[in-house]
Design brief:
This protein is mainly alpha-helical. The longest helix is centred in the first third of the chain and has 30 residues.
Length: about 180
Amino acid sequence: MGEAKSGRDEEFQSFIVAVWPRLVRTAYLLAGEQYAAEDLVQSAAEKACAAWPKVRRADDPYAYVRRILVNQHARRWRRRPPELLVDAVPDAAGPEDGYARSDQRGALLAALATLPPRQREAVVLRYWEDLSDSQTAAAMGCSTGAVRSHAAKGIGRLRQVPALMGPEDRKPKDRTEIGGAV
């Protein structure tokens, strides 16, 4: 009996060690602060450990734990009002992560901080986690239509942020916009 429990503990530990960086990155994008992200991941790991037999039988254990993480984040937002999030992104991601190398990551994180929690969740899960609408809906506990709506509104707000616009987006469309004659 002790050997089986020890084997489950080792299996859980190796799983959490493998997915920890991805969970922390997702949590950081949701929460906006390193300490809050680590707290979210720790509490999700605690819940996953308690339910490990059920988690490991799931089709995708990472998706199961990510859902726990998103639920934990949603509960925290319900308990306290949103705060202004920090501008710096930790360099916890590996060199293969294009997001970590982006010159605009600070501006992007600041812009994400302005989004309401559900829009931020939808944008992070759809575009950083690269989940489908149905996977995102499952992770957020809502319909695919709600995911599409939240993601579209969130992306629309991000497109309005001047720091995220490319040079082609900043150019006036015609001379009348800058006071010139056509």
